[in-house]
Amino acid sequence: MSLEHLWAGWRLDYVQRAGAEERAGAPGECVFCRIAASGPPSADNGVVWRDERVFVVLNAYPYASGHLLVLPVRHVGDLHELDPAESAAMWGATLDAMAALGAAYDPDGMNMGANLGRAAGAGIPRHVHLHVVPRWSGDTNFMTTVGGVRVLPEALAQSWEKLEGAWPAR
Prior knowledge:
Blueprint: H1 11-24, H2 31-36, E1 47-50, E2 54-58, E3 68-72, H3 84-105, E4 109-113, E5 130-135, H4 142-145, H5 156-166
Antiparallel strand pairs: 1-2, 2-3, 3-5, 4-5
Helix pairs in contact: 3-5
């Protein structure tokens, strides 16, 4: 078996700087806090559902149509920083997100998880969030595997309408 490597030595500076900034808690506006403060759920802000502790928003860079993020309203960087009420609310919202995705999209399966820390793949590691992604058999095709491109069949506004309409009543 052959193992090929792509060397990008120029990235070392970026990786070290990003890691140092994360450890230092580098200042900067949190996009998730801005969304949390953007008002009630709407197609404009992408928020599908919210309460006083958590909110659910469409991922602006989805892996699949309907890709949702479940977040605490409070700015915390890790799951262990959540208080018990926030933790329970996040789990409840995650279950509701899965139910809404099932009703709106009828997927063959779902991915649910968290990337905790930049090294684990978190694009925004200082505000913890869970991903809920609907999946279909064969949804990874040649465009993703060969071209490194994802093709999504609907606009985010259409995804918002489907999910908002399918959100379970509490």
